[in-house]
Design brief:
Largest sheet: 5 strands, antiparallel
Strand order of the largest sheet: 3-2-1-4-5
Radius of gyration: 44 Å
Main location: nucleus
Protein name: S1 motif domain-containing protein
Number of helices: 40
Number of strands: 41
Distance between the termini: 92 Å
Pfam families: OB_RRP5, S1, S1_RRP5, Suf
Shape: flat
GO molecular function: RNA binding
Subcellular location: Nucleus, Nucleolus
Structural class: alpha+beta
Strand content: 15-25%
């Protein structure tokens, strides 16, 4: 096989294998990934519509080089069986050699399995059946059983060998045999791998077996290339023929039944039968062929007549015999008689079609989808021609290559260009023409444009399907076009033209227009008896009340814009004319470019008024619009009226409508085709809606109440659930004037305008009253520039500060403290009223248990530590992330009380057997457990790991308020990072921008294919946003704790990920580059979509296009979306690591890494690259990256922990110990504990548990009162399962002089452990220890 383009030469026949099968070509690969292309015309001797039916990826093929372009490094191949057939019997020779090798390997494997003491057999007489039973020789056997397919025999001294006399080889001798009878026959074939010997009992075969001298002489006279006549004696289906050569002493020969490039036996055009005489060519003689066989070549196609026959008359009207030489989409290629004349049978000249009957069938059964055509068993030419083709069946389906047919010559016809064809003769197979020609009658001329007139119905065949049209052929020289809108009145058919109209489908069409000068023909497949056309709608008035075909051009709040026909006007469908009933979303299922059938209702200006209601006969492709099954349909009586009676719109009336738009004026609802209603922003909701446009998307169904109808018929609506009225039932607002307002009152309003000195707010209850919120009365973050926090038409809550009725001035305050205080006062008043009304009693007394006694013992201490608890709970994630307390706090004794409070909070929420939280500031096994769960030894994904490490460093820096540790410059940097983290957490409360993905959404630790779609189980378990916010006693929002930030971030990432997965999966998932181009236009900043786009090209084997997509993504994604760009860089690194070739994979990926480091966070990128190289086994590159990480980021404990883990994974404990020493020298003192604990956890998990215990014992000697360290130690021992060590450790911990809250946590863990692993005595022992501690604490 060739290795480079220099080894490829034109006309060379090369072996290779199929690397990729496309819809239009097959790519064959050779050595060194050298690849050639074979187009559709070069794949087979017959027409090929689907290469996948002939070739499969990985199939070995033989091909001939067609053209070679060395400059462009490209070459084309030809794979037609007629060109690549193995006339030298190389295919069959390779088959026998492979079978012989398989048998040898099997014998060696059996000998090895039997034991080393036995001898290994070789291909000698002990194992080679072809030497025990030479083909053509005699064999003795005993009848074992008689079956319908032949006689089964036992062969003496060979119990593992089965003899078979096929029923065709029984003869007179075999017919008289009984069970147990002895026989002697001739060996026809030996199948080593099946242990089978085929035997013949035919008299001529037995005679030839006895005459060995004649056989030897005949074999000596045979030469390679000799043409011999053979008789088919047997067949191995799909493998080879067994032939006898009567003229050569009945020698046995073998010929292949299949060949290169033939995937399945049924694709072989020639069939064989037992006893058939065939002409063969000797190709291989013994001893070159295994088993002493003679190999011949028998053509697998019918052999045509020679060229020396008499000349056949080809005048028009002559009846000739022809052989099919090719099957194309719209015609048959034939060779006439025995001469060199060639002809063509057009698809319209194969069968007779009755126009009236075909039109009736077309009316009853429109064209439906049809599977791609493939060759069917050959039928007689007369049967094919005389059987009328049913609707939807291609008349060429019944023909096969080299089939002989009878045809009548039509002559050389004129094409539509007006010139006579100088090519093949036109023939006809139509029975009516054959009958007339045989009678000598004059033949009717084929259909031409000159014989057509508008309104005429003609039978046609589909010959081509374009994107916007179907091309039909009515005759050999008459071709017409059907606009897509005239192809069907079913939108689903228009959306799938190639499926609905396969090439070759017979149809009946109506002539719309004939342009004989321009040689153009317009046809229609609908309304065959009418005169309308959907392809060109010009007069709207004339089409009013009728159905028309169109395509959706635009969708918005004003409805659906539909383009009628190819060149017709644009019409509009109102929101209320899409469905017959009220549905939750009027626009659901509709999108631009979808084909529709609409009812023309009238005309408004230049636009047509249309309807998509199913009751009007309208439909949408795919079942969208009114034809879709919508959830939450309104009741039966809630049918959407086409027009609303103006007299029914009275004040207080409830109406339904669809959201049309939302702007500064308010919310507009479409009530019917022409009438809208306005909901002012003050009446949109009972509460505060910051973004009404987002809350009420276009097309949403709403139910509102009429509150006003003016003299011009304009309708004002309200969405409030309770309309407050003034006393006496007046319709005036509750607040008629400023005098009714009082200081401290809580009001709701809408921002009217934003200026430098404050906000102007219109009261929700009375928009005529406008108050001023001075910038000094705004929240602190908005005092400098109010426009950064507020926008026009934003709904807010404020407190009345001052009312000046004389000067008509109102002062408001938006200070959070004041607003919270007013809300609390209002809520307290309401609760007091409810309690008074319901007469609630006192609370139930609480029961006291051992836990509460311990808590009571430390109650005074707990009160003293309220100030520190919030901070520590923030570090622990409010106890939801694990059981342990924070690591990295100050080591003086003053922290014990704070840690006790944190431990108590953690113990209340943690399970006993759960792992301790080590991630971020806490020390636990969460990360290590994740590592255990991931196949391949990964931990968190690379991007997540690096991001979490950044958070670790920030939190550690922020955990020391006194700043007693670390250098001054580093402390300042850490403080700045803390502030940025707080700002980021605040932004998470807001709505994330659409079309973006976080780095955590991609599992970068998985292989390339899994990285794109794998659901990372670590992303589950997020909490709602309601759990992520908290308020202190004064009502002020307090800063989110770290655990809350993490959960809130995970929740947002899950929502974004779910939305993107829903869009990229299911029946509407993108499958082509065009689909992804539309997606990246809609979501240009989504790395998820870009990476999926890259994966599409990789699945097609086009890595270069995947690289181009990656570069486009980096150029397109906004520079602020750093995480999105980072995801693309990581995906590109994966791509180069797997497919990089120039100059080498290692250099390619390192070049890209160096480039990525210039544009991304270097630490995150190094960590991601390290994970990629570890998974792919590139240890040298991984070592290089690790050295760079520890050198550049020696102040990161997670970087050192990663290096230590790598050393332990390689069973190099000494290197891990040295790395820990280096880490303690490089890290600041405040990170030493964390580094030591991480190293200990790694030892427990990957190295030596004893070394891990030694590290933890050393840390506990210096910090014996650190509950978090004790908790981690206990976790690790619990995993070892050594009960003696575990109980000893619990005993040590529970006898420490720690505060009650810490002891409560330890006693609870000890008790739960004994309940699971111990007995009643051990449980009672723990309880007694706890009660003793309580008593001592209470008496102290």
């Amino acid at each position: 096989m060739p290795r480079t383009i220099a080894d490829v030469h034109e006309a060379a026949v090369l072996p290779g294998y199929v690397a990729l099968v496309h819809s239009d070509a097959v790519y064959v690969r050779f050595l060194a990934r050298l690849q050639g292309r074979a187009g559709l015309p070069q794949l087979s001797d017959v027409f090929v519509s689907d290469p996948g039916q002939i070739f499969t990826e990985g199939q070995s093929v033989r091909c001939q080089v067609g053209t070679c372009d060395a400059a462009r490094q490209r070459f084309t191949l030809m794979m037609k069986p007629s060109i690549t057939a193995s006339t030298d019997a190389s295919y069959l020779l390779g088959f026998f050699r492979e079978m012989q090798q398989v048998q040898t390997l099997r014998a060696e494997a059996e000998a090895a399995a039997a034991g080393s003491g036995g001898d290994v057999p070789s291909t000698d007489t002990d194992t080679d059946l072809s030497k025990l039973f030479p083909v053509g020789g005699q064999v003795a056997a005993r009848v074992h059983e008689i079956k319908e397919y032949g006689i089964l025999c036992d062969i003496d001294d060979h119990p593992d060998v089965v003899g078979l006399v096929p029923s065709s080889q029984v003869g007179e001798v075999g017919s008289a045999l009984a069970l147990g009878s002895q026989l002697r026959g001739r060996v026809l074939d030996v199948v080593d791998h099946q242990g089978l010997v085929e035997i013949s009992l035919k008299p001529d075969m037995l005679e030839a077996a006895k005459n060995k001298a004649a056989a030897k002489k005949a074999l000596k006279m045979l030469k390679v290339g000799d043409a011999v006549e053979g008789v088919v004696e047997g067949m191995r289906p799909g493998e080879y023929l067994i032939l006898s050569l009567p003229e050569h002493a009945s020698l046995l020969a073998y010929a292949a039944l299949t060949d290169f490039n033939i995937a399945r036996p049924e694709l072989v055009p020639r069939t064989f039968t037992l006893g058939q005489r065939v002409t063969a060519t000797v190709a291989v003689l013994p001893p070159e062929a295994p088993g002493g066989r003679i190999l011949c070549h028998v053509p697998l196609t019918h052999v045509g007549a020679g060229s020396g026959g008499t000349k056949v008359a080809t005048t028009p009207g002559s009846v000739v015999r022809a052989v099919v030489t090719g099957i194309q989409q719209d015609h048959l290629d034939v060779r006439i008689g025995s001469g060199k004349s060639v002809g063509r049978v057009h698809i319209t000249e194969v069968v007779d079609r009755d126009v009236a009957a075909a039109a009736a069938e077309a009316a009853d059964a429109p064209p439906v989808a049809k599977k791609p055509r493939k060759a069917e068993p050959a039928a007689a030419a007369a049967a094919v021609a005389s059987t009328p083709a049913p609707l939807g069946v291609n008349p060429l389906d019944g023909f096969r290559l080299h089939q002989e047919v009878e045809a009548v010559v039509l002559g050389r016809l004129k094409e539509q260009r007006g010139r006579s064809q100088r090519g093949p003769l036109e023939l006809s197979l139509r029975p009516s023409r054959l009958e007339a020609a045989k009678k000598g009658e004059r033949l009717a001329r084929p259909v031409t444009l000159a014989s057509m007139a508008p309104g005429q119905k003609i039978p046609c065949f589909v010959v081509e399907v374009a994107e916007d049209a179907v091309w039909l052929s009515a005759g050999p020289v008459a071709r017409g076009r059907v606009s897509i809108y005239d192809a069907s009145t079913d939108p689903n058919v228009l959306a799938n033209l190639p499926t609905a109209f396969p090439v070759g489908t017979p149809v009946t069409a109506r002539v719309l227009a004939v342009d004989r000068k321009g040689k153009k023909l317009d046809l229609s497949l609908v309304d065959l008896d009418g005169a309308t056309t959907h392809g060109s709608v010009t007069d709207i008035a004339s089409r009013t009340g009728t159905l028309a075909m169109g395509r959706i051009r635009a969708i918005d709040g004003f409805g659906v814009r539909v383009k009628l026909g190819a060149h017709g006007p644009v019409g509009s469908v109102a929101l209320t004319d899409i469905h017959d009933r009220w549905v939750p979303d009027a626009l659901e299922g509709l999108k631009e470019g979808v084909y529709v059938r609409v009812r023309v209702l009238g005309q408004k200006g230049e636009f047509a008024v249309l309807s998509l209601r199913p009751s009007h006969g309208a439909a949408v492709a795919g079942g969208g619009g009114g034809g879709s099954n919508t959830a939450g349909e309104a009741p039966e009586e809630a049918t959407a009226p086409e027009l609303v009676d103006a007299s029914s719109l009275t004040v207080g009336k409830s109406v339904t409508g669809y959201v049309k738009k939302c702007d500064a004026k308010g919310l507009f609802l479409a009530l019917d085709r022409f009438r809208d209603g306005l909901v002012r922003l003050s009446n949109v909701s009972d509460g505060v809606i910051e973004d009404p446009a987002a809350a009420f998307p276009v097309g949403m169904r709403l139910q509102a109440r009429v509150i006003k109808v003016d003299e011009n018929g304009r309708v004002e609506l309200s969405l409030r659930t309770f309309l407050r009225k003034a006393p006496g039932g007046s319709s005036q607002p509750v607040v008629p004037s400023l005098s009714d307002l009082r200081p401290g009152q809580l009001i709701t309003g809408v921002v009217r305008s934003v200026c430098d000195f404050g906000l102007f707010v219109a009261l929700d209850d009375n928009p005529a009253i406008v108050g001023l919120a001075h910038k000094n009365d705004l929240p602190e973050h908005a005092m400098k520039d109010p426009s950064t926090a507020f926008k026009e038409f934003q709904m807010i809550r404020a407190v009345v500060v001052k009312v000046d009725a004389e000067r008509r001035r109102l002062s408001l305050s938006l200070k959070p403290a004041k607003v919270k205080k007013a809300e609390a006062a209002e809520a307290e008043a309401e609760e007091a009223a409810e309690r008074k009304a319901k007469g609630k009693g006192s609370k139930r007394p609480r029961t006291v248990d051992i836990d509460e006694e311990i808590a009571a013992a430390g109650g005074d201490e707990e009160d003293a530590e309220d100030g520190r608890r919030d901070q520590l709970q923030g570090q622990l994630g409010d106890g939801a992330d694990g059981e342990g307390a924070a690591v990295g706090e100050d080591e003086d004794e003053g922290d014990d009380d704070g840690l006790a409070a944190a431990a108590a909070a953690a113990a209340a929420a943690a399970a006993v057997d759960s792992d301790q939280d080590v991630d971020d500031v806490d020390v636990s096994e969460e990360e290590e457990e994740d590592n255990d769960d991931v196949v391949g030894g990964g931990g968190l994904s690379d991007s997540e790991d690096a991001a979490a490490d950044d958070e670790d460093e920030d939190e550690e820096a922020g955990g020391h308020e006194d700043g007693s540790e670390g250098a001054g410059g580093e402390e300042e940097d850490d403080d700045e990072e803390d502030e940025e983290e707080d700002e980021e957490a605040g932004r998470l409360v807001q709505r994330s921008p659409p079309g973006t993905t976080n780095a955590a959404n991609l599992d970068l630790m998985a292989p390339w294919g899994e990285m794109l779609l794998a659901d990372d189980p670590r992303l589950s378990g997020g909490v709602g946003t309601g759990d992520a916010l908290a308020a202190d006693g004064s009502g002020e929002e307090r800063k989110l704790s770290k655990g809350q930030k993490k959960r809130l971030k995970e929740q947002r990432e899950q929502e974004i990920r779910a939305a993107e997965l829903a869009r990229l999966s299911g029946p509407t998932a993108p499958t082509t580059p065009a689909d992804y181009e539309r997606l990246v236009l809609a979501s240009p900043n989504s790395s998820f979509v870009w990476i999926k786009y890259m994966a599409l090209y990789l699945s097609l084997g086009d890595a270069d296009s995947a690289r181009k997509v990656a570069q486009r993504a980096l150029d397109t994604i906004n520079y602020r979306e750093e995480n999105e760009k980072f995801n693309v860089w990581v995906a590109w690194l994966n791509l180069e690591n797997a497919y990089g070739t120039t100059p080498s994979p290692e250099e390619a990926v390192m070049d890209l890494l160096r480039k990525a480091l210039q544009y991304t966070d270097q630490k995150k990128m190094y960590v991601a690259a390290l994970g990629i190289f570890e998974r792919s086994g590139r240890e040298e590159l991984a070592e290089q990256v690790e050295r760079a990480l520890t050198k550049k980021f020696g102040g990161s404990s997670k970087v050192w922990a990663r290096a230590i883990e790598r050393a332990l994974q390689k069973n190099d404990g000494e290197s891990a110990r040295k790395l820990l020493e280096r880490a303690l020298q490089s890290l600041p003192a405040r990170k030493h504990i964390k580094a030591l604990v991480r190293a200990a956890l790694a030892e427990f998990r990957l190295g030596s548990a004893e070394r891990g215990r030694g590290i933890l014992e050393g840390v506990l000697r210096n910090y014996p009162k650190r509950l978090d360290l004790w908790n981690v130690y206990i976790d690790q021992e619990l995993k070892t399962g050594e009960q003696q060590r575990i109980r000893a450790l619990f005993e040590r911990a529970t006898h420490l002089p720690l505060p009650p809250k810490k002891m409560k946590f330890l006693f609870r863990r000890y008790l739960e452990y004994e309940k699971l692993e111990g007995d009643a005595a051990s449980v009672e022992h723990v309880k007694r220890l706890a009660m003793d501690f309580v008593e001592k604490s209470l008496t102290a």
